[in-house]
Write a structure and sequence with these properties.
The chain is an alpha+beta fold. It is built from 4 helices and 13 strands.
Amino acid sequence: MAAAYSQCSADFSLQNFPCREKSAMLDGGRSFEPADSTLHSEVAMLRAARTARAVRTVHADRSVSSVRSVRPARLARRLVLSLAALTLGVGVTAGSAHAAAPAPVPGADFSACPALSELPEGADPGDWRCEAMTAVGHLTLGRIDQSLDKGMAITFAEGTVNGEFRQVFGAMTAAPVRVRGTWLEITPRYAGYFDFQSNDQRRGELNLKFGVSGPAVPSGCSIGTDEDPVRLVLKETAASTVVSQDPLVVAFGVADNRFTAPRTSGCGRLGPVLDAVLRMPSPAGVNSLELDARVSLRGYGEAGVAASSPSGLISGISR
């Protein structure tokens, strides 16, 4: 028995399997016997298994190729069908409760401050300052109900000319926000008008448009335009508190829940579908924007304020 086991174990390999294990256990160990008569069947089984794996690989490659060969037109049709399904109530659902807003993005970026050359004629730099605001919050717009947790930033200058209060817009940046249950993203953008001089009725005003992007959505598609914007009249929800004296940083809260939103613009043939999905136009009473803001202030008379405008700054309306 020992001799038979040695002979079998010496020839054992994945390519040559000349022995078959017995089911019986003898003397506490396994017993083997030559199995030359079954060699061909074992080899055939191995070859069949390899052939099956090869067939599965070919099928998988063909599947991947078919996916890669989907034409853009088919993608557009699929998007239309998917968005149309959402109009029937599939996929997009408004959140029942708003998550607590995270703390505003720390720090201040004064690189987008309007340059001295962009201030109104006759402006004394000693009477002007740049304000860099960062904010996070929550947006409800038609069917959109999303946290603005990635933040937005607005930079502008304000001061006086001959005793009259004036403002100059610098720039606005915001991260895209995914619309829950869809392939769409929206991005808040400046729409040509602002007035951050506060009074008893409001903390400030700001016109926005919301860029819409996604598969097959044309560039320039948006909710609102410069000519027909989403106009916000922001009211104070949390009084200003000084976070830092040097540099001067002030935190506060604002919100608007009475604004309207127009139908989409610049969206081509997808416009009606997007309007149905996003529930545009959206009347007053169903929309809201809540912001927790932090503003850093720097005077133009201080060292380090740029004297010339970097390329790409947005020149806003001065008042």
